[in-house]
Amino acid sequence: MYLPPHPGCRGNHTHWNSADCPSPGRLAAPALHTAAAQPREFSRPSQTHKSYQFRRQSGLASFAHKSAYVFRDGRHSPARMREANPMKTLRFGIEIETVGASRQKLAHAIQSAVGGHVSGDYRGMQVTDTQGRAWKVVADASLSGGDHSGEIVSPILTYQDLEALQQVVRAAREAGARADASTGIHIHVDGSRFEAQSVTNLVKMVHKQERLLETALGVSAARLSRFCKPIDAAFIQRLEARRPRTLQDVNEAWYGRRNSMPTRYDQSRYHGLNLNSLFFRGTIEFRYFNGTVHAGEVKAYVQLVLALAARALASKAASSKRRDFNPATAKYDFRVFLLHLGLIGEEFKTARLHLLKNLKGSAAWKGQRRDRRSPGGGEDGSPGSEGPQGAQGGAGGTQGGAPAEAMAAA
């Protein structure tokens, strides 16, 4: 997966150019640097700096990032940037595994959604869209479909590209693509904004809620045992003991040793939260998601990942103590967590519905109280979904706000 560029990038989308693309400053707005800014270069494997150069060994993509970040004036100060929703400033990429349709058929389906032209070689198919971005369809030996299967690899995307991504998913489904037990979805977030503290925050947040997260996403026992294992307890212990101050400290905690030359296929990659990707290519990978060709589910998964990443970046600290899992209150507990992440209000109502639908219990009440939903109300516990008291009653919530318990959810 590629490190995401600025949506207005004028350069080659597989490389970051300091004059044309944004730097990874904290919560950076798109046009914050000047063409005259000179990049600072650091050689790999120095993991303590925000600048990295990586190359994807598959040969399908390569990119380099050279940090050059300049604030033009006080209007773009970090304090001002925090006023915007930070999850919408993060860049990401996604890999969607499918069966049922050939790679050529998938490529033409993508073209029907994003325009541009189709090309291909021995490595797979590529669609270059009207913005010059490359959507790839590659083979994956783990998929059950043989020649009638393929992994859709997105180009660098921004939050504003979610509608285009949904159109691609819908087009793939119409072309015959489907999901089965062999398919999954991997979402990568630009890791260049992350320092030791924010990476540690993210790890601890996910570890604390991991059982709830796995249940909400319906991750099968087979995938949990092989392709998206839970966060390693030994890694958490090393992280707690080291109190990392640099990314090199996190690197040593992740691998159990100093690994200055991480490889793409290191066995540590097969965890739901994959930091090998951060040290190899500069992205943090989330592998928890089952395969799907439902556009709404894909959007919900991306929003969840971006909200988790944004919360980790904004937090000063986090607790790693595992949360007790109670199936009877799981829907309420996870809804509280989603609200705490900022997935609140009408904009994220559909995301909450998809993320809560696999859980038992009430989204609005904790304990023995039953749902009191009005006719036509939703099941996500949002205002108006329940009866007279609704989410504003016993759940301790406010109109458009998180319940009081949300403060302890993360």
UniProtKB/TrEMBL annotation:
One family name in Pfam for this protein: Amidoligase_2
Low complexity bias: start-end ranges: 401-410
Sequence ranges of Gly residues compositional bias: 390-400
Region (Disordered): 364-410
Protein name (database record): Conserved uncharacterized protein
